[in-house]
Amino acid sequence: MFLTLLLQAPAGGITQFLFPVAIAAVVYFFMIRPQQKRAATARKFRESLTKGATVVTIGGLHGKVVDVHEESVIVEVDRGTRLKFDRSAIAREVTPAAKAPVTTP
Prior knowledge:
Layout: H1 2-8, H2 15-47, E1 54-57, E2 62-68, E3 72-78, E4 81-86, E5 90-93
Antiparallel strand pairs: 1-2, 1-5, 2-3, 3-4
């Protein structure tokens, strides 16, 4: 079907190149550019990790950062249980939720 549409177009002219350029622009603005922004944000977050931050790894493990090295971090997942992870394994930081006031009827 796509081929028949191209064959019906008049030969020559700028319209012949307009469609592929438009598709390339759509792919760039809707797929490539947002992915680059997410990667830059994740890189900036991993560089800014500090001691005491509560984090979640890409595997879903929750813990508190107790030591930060150049290429790795040490996360305490339980009292006395410390695990060493690459910085790239940290997915996000968890912010403590505000406690809702308890109301009694």
